[in-house]
Design a protein that fits this description.
transferase, HMG_CoA_synt_C_dom, 3-stranded mixed β-sheet, alpha/beta, 34% helix, Peroxisomal Thiolase, Chain A, domain 1, 450 residues, 21% strand
């Protein structure tokens, strides 16, 4: 007997995990001897989460999944697909998904499709698409799907380090979802570029061309957003679509100042489509500038940031709570933005609204896609409880943070190693690394629940 075709496929529930400790960005500015505001204003960051040698990508993913299943009271036997999006690689062959199967053992459910998806910060979005398309397809067996998206973002000492962070999102995908994915409203852009990549397998640190990465992000906004608007016009029948047709917009956030620029870029694209609109009266001097000439044009960038301020405040600002206070979670970043929006916006304001997401991964891959809010999101907001959880973290002095980063660097890819990080500061329910044996096999424990 075939399974009836699913309807309103999308996100049934979501939760996020981030470490118990953070460093204050203003204090880090002083410690690093940089000008006041370089991290807090220039990057738009307030705090940055981090972890020591007790947590790796497998442990943070297990913490996110087990915590999610307990909070929402979901049985592992109800899961038929598990997709993981991450670029934090601790094994060149064995996927993080296979480690997560340890959590399924007690249920006896080993029939779970899906593996890891990797392309910088875009892997989580690809994992979500895979899960949603499985539920929407003839291959669906009636069970639900889990999507895990997260990373440990660390950089070497220097200008890039303040743009790090740690976080993992866990998402339940199925039919009749409160957040229904709008098939086929999706615009995708991909090209080959060396803006951010990790060729050195002996290090956690990426190789980054900062200016090129910023330009690549903006170019991806241009193409993915424009392709999405074309779908709105052709598929949804919306004449002359624009940001006015999107109620909320959530962005991948390497740092929140980039999101401000990304939103302004969408407004610039609206301007190119309808330059004579009254709202663009102040930016007519850019009408004859080619798109290629616009990249890196700081005068244009500032002008469209100013033009877009009111729309940004109403459509995007609420989605930046996690990014501003945790940092970059790579694949999890855009979903932490969605979690922030849901936790800060009452269902009454979300009901029936369209939430668009822009996902970007260096290298590069990007998509703009959207959800329609079809049912009450209040339980999701209560479960995430984001603001309260952020307030309960432990602040660490920059000097101690620096020592912990040095420890991670020295012990990366270690074998026959027992971590030295203090597990007493880990939250109840957190999985942690106990040891790595001579064959690089990892053993984990879990902090008991209260």
């Amino acid at each position: 007997m075939s399974t009836p075709r699913a309807e309103n496929v999308g996100i049934l529930a979501i939760d996020v995990y981030f470490p118990s400790r953070y460093v204050d960005q203003a204090e880090l500015e002083q410690h690093d001897g940089v000008s006041a505001g370089k991290y807090t204003i220039g990057l738009g960051q307030s705090k940055m989460s981090f972890c020591d040698d007790r947590e790796d990508i497998s442990s943070v993913s297990m913490t996110a999944v087990q915590g999610f299943m307990e909070k929402y009271n979901i049985s592992y036997s109800d899961i038929g697909r598990l997709e993981v999006g991450t670029e934090t690689i601790i094994d060149k062959s064995k996927s993080t998904k296979t480690v997560l199967m340890k959590l399924f053992e007690e249920s006896g459910n080993f029939s779970v499709e899906g593996i890891d998806t990797t392309n910088a910060c875009y892997g989580g979005t690809s994992a979500l698409f895979n899960a949603c398309q499985w539920v929407d397809s003839a291959a669906w067996d009636g069970r639900l799907a889990l999507v895990v998206a997260g990373d440990i973002a660390v950089y070497g000492k220097g200008a890039a380090r303040p743009s790090g962070g740690v976080g993992t999102a866990c998402i339940l995908v199925g039919p009749n979802a409160p957040l229904a994915l709008e098939f086929p409203l999706r615009g995708t852009f991909m090209e080959h570029i060396y803006d951010f990549y990790k060729p050195d397998m002996s290090s956690e640190f990426p190789t980054v061309d900062g200016p090129l990465s910023v330009t690549s992000y903006v170019r991806a906004v241009d193409h993915a957003y424009s392709a999405y608007l074309e779908k709105l016009e052709k598929v949804a029948g919306i004449a002359n679509p624009s940001l006015d047709d999107l109620d909320y917009v959530v962005f991948h956030s390497p740092y929140t100042k980039q999101v401000v620029k990304g939103f302004a870029r969408m407004v610039y694209n609206d301007f190119l489509r309808n330059p004579e609109a009254e709202t663009f009266a102040e930016v007519q001097q850019f009408k004859d500038l080619s798109r290629e000439e616009s990249y890196g044009n700081k005068v244009l960038e500032k002008a469209f940031i100013n033009v877009s301020k009111s729309q940004f405040a109403s459509k995007t600002e609420a989605s930046l709570l996690a990014a501003r206070n945790i940092g970059n979670m790579y694949t999890g970043s855009v979903f932490f933005g969605l979690a922030s929006l849901l936790s800060q916006t009452p269902f009454e304001k979300l009901n029936g609204k369209r939430i668009a997401l822009f996902s970007y991964g260096s290298g590069c891959a990007a998509s703009t896609y959207s959800f329609r809010v079809r049912a009450d999101t209040s339980k999701i907001a209560r479960t995430i409880d984001l603001a309260a959880r952020l307030d309960k973290r432990i602040k660490v002095a920059p000097a101690d943070f620096e020592k912990i980063m040095e420890l991670r660097e020295k012990t990366h890819n270690a074998q026959e190693y027992e971590p030295t990080g203090n597990i007493e500061e880990l939250k109840p329910g957190t999985y942690y690394l106990q040891k790595i044996d001579s064959k690089w096999r990892r053993a984990y424990g879990r902090i008991p629940l209260d």
